[in-house]
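Journal club side-thread
Mid-discussion, someone asked how the predicted structure for our own chain would compare to the paper's figures. Pasting it here so we can look after the session.
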Amino acid sequence: MARHIYVHNPFCVRKCPYCDFYSVTDCSCAEAFYKAAVREVKLIGSVTDENTGTNLLTDIDNKDTVYFGGGTPTVPDSRFVCELLGEIKKAFNIAPDAEITIEANPSSVTSEKLTEYLQAGFNRISLGVQSLDDEVLKVLGRLHDSKGAIDALKKISDAGFTNISADLITGVPGETLDGIKRDIGTFRDLGVKHISTYSLMLEEDTPFYDRYNKTIEEYISPELEREMYHGTRAFLNESGYETYEISNSCMPGFRSIHNSSYWNSCEYFAIGAGAHGFLGDMRYGHRDDVRAYIEEMNTITSDTYKAFLEGNVSGLKLLYIEEELSREDKMREVAFLRLRTSDGILLDEFKKVFGVEFEDVFADEVKTNIEKGLLERKERTLRLTRSGLDLANVVIKDFL
């Protein structure tokens, strides 16, 4: 079975006003953090079998993946990042053809760092561009401008990366569909193979929430936001990108294998403060505290870590169990995760795993949403219709 590892780097130069992911701007403890992360990797390696990494539904690609997210993994010294990846590859016996991704921001990539990442084994990079419109970038509080983003993409390509992803945020006050289309065209011309398009979300406890929560519709109405969403999807498809998930599109052969492992209910290990993982029946996390992470990883024993992976949190301050999933929980999660994808719910796979038909377990939910025109059955799959995409959260809630 493929193994999937997520590493959370908590360091950023500056916190973006719309972001609610865990990050800190004090990088003084970065070296200590990465040493602690190396220790966590060694602890996992000492208490788990190398075959750990089963999955609930079929992992079609069946490849190992490693994903360095954040935060901004390109902010700390590249030596720390590359050394940690080396330990991960050894501890998990990562296959040579594994997909290994690092997230980056245009303001923190250099040609030297990119060369080091490539030599260390990173073969995919996800660049947080968000927009190529300087006015939109100002609204988003980004550190780069459009020229900086384009220069960064050129550096990434020149360094030798061929699997390049770029992020766009849609629905930003002042943004237009024509502007988004121009950005996509530029990405395509620069060799970007994967594009993630995220609708702006107003998350509580962020400056954007305080600024726009009561007035966002003055800048962009729900109707205009949906028009932009569908217009973006259509233009992506016209440009050669296949939309394979609500927010993700790619050139053929360039789906994110790591992200697909989440939607396929695969298990994955988590490393680092703020990281979350899924093993067996357990979803678990590391608390959002860099210094507590450093302290606990420097004192925890392999026996204690092993006990945690078996569900015992006694004496731990940092690691915690978010929830333990029952068989019924896992069936509901299939609907929650797979309805995000263009492939939808694979009915044969569901029956193979659970021994029952999905439409027997969720008969009323399926019938109701098909009658509303929000779900469609195609051969042995169930997926959202175009109207269903607009009400995805409502449909998914019916199954939870």
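Post-session note: Residues 343-398 form a domain with the Arc Repressor Mutant, subunit A fold (CATH 1.10.10.10).
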